[in-house]
Give the backbone structure.
Amino acid sequence: MASFVPTSSDTLEDQRLYTQARLVEVACLDCLARVGVKKNSEHHTSIQWSAEARGDCPEFARRTGGRDLKDGCPRMIASVEAAVRDGRVPIGAEDGY
């Protein structure tokens, strides 16, 4: 549960920009789960999993422990890397996002 819930319109917009701006949809080349991806640099990749995508991913279905998702799915990571190589996911932050 969040200890701070933003209410200011400026703060809400900052939150939206940080978590959703420039997300590109990428489908897993294996199971077709779809995630939002943002790549701010060569070394930074953000992958936003929806509940639907987590449910579609057989890798996550095989895992136990509830939140044991921090290591991600190797098939999705490979799919994101392929999308970056193909130019479907741009690299570089814009205006800090």
